[in-house]
Structure formats: structure tokens, C-alpha cells
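U., I forgot to send this yesterday:
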Amino acid sequence: MDHGNHEAHQMPARCAMHMLWNTQIINTCVVFSSWHIHTHTQFVLSIVAIVLLGILYEYLRFFQQSVNRRIATKLGKGKRAASPVSESGRSTPERGAASEVVGLLNGRRGRNMDGVVLPAHLRLLRAALYGASVFLSFFLMLVFMTYNAYLIFAVVAGAAIGHYIFDRHVGFDNAGGKSMACH
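Result:
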């Protein structure tokens, strides 16, 4: 019994969803079903795109820090007073049980409120940059969650390349401030 031309009735390729480590190339979908990889060329282009997204994420982190430094410099000119000197002669606040008890008794939290309230346009800029970096970090996390070894490598490579390009200096006041959190 001949059913005719089988190519005309061929099912479209579907996205392969793996919940285990894999190295599949063809029929891999990256985050969206519309980002469906059908060829090796598409896979290579996807790897390049993911590496560039990792570099962009590191650039966003760098740019956020740069904006924050510029804002602090601009708002801090002429407003920086000498540090108060404590009873012990230290310029840093006393850290002890007595100051903790006072904080508990008067209801104040131990949060440092020495900063300046930012104008709305600067808060909006900082919020937009933060939102973009959170979105991109979660997007890269979803790429990582394809469990595809090549795509995972692309995410890590993009982050490493971006870190190399944009994180040239280390500040001694916050030498260990970078983390591998999603945002």
C-alpha cells in the first residue's frame, strides 16, 4: 500500500527541550520557539549573538557604575564635610553593643543615611539601566537553562570577554564587590 509522496506530509521540525546536559545543535530553540535553530550556520550565528549579549551585559554593569560615579561626583562637589571624630578619636562610627542598644531603643535602623536624594530624572535613568541589566541577566539565565553545553559556553565566554574589556580597574574600597548573581 503506497501512501504517495512522504515529503509533502513531513512534520515540521520541533524544538527539542532537554532538561539534562546536551550538545544538540539542530532543532535547538533558544528561549523562544521563534529562535529555532535549523542549520549549523544558524547555530554559529546564535552562539555569536549570545556572546555579544554577555558582553553587552558586562557593558551595562560598567555603564551603571560609571553613571553612579558621575552622579556622586556631580552631587558631592562642595557638600563633603569632614568626618566626625568619635570619642575614641576614630573617624569611623563606633561599632559596639551600646550603639546597637541605642538603635534598638529609639527605633532607628542602622542604615547610613549620609547620601543625597536624587532628582527624578537621575532616578529614572538609574532605574532604566537597572531594569535593562536585570532583564538581560534573566534572559542569559534562560539561555543557560537550555542545558546546551555550547550555549552555556557562549554565555560564560561573553561574560568573560566583557569583564576583560570593561573591568580594567580595581577599587580598593570594594575589591570583592562583583558577584555571579543574576542581577
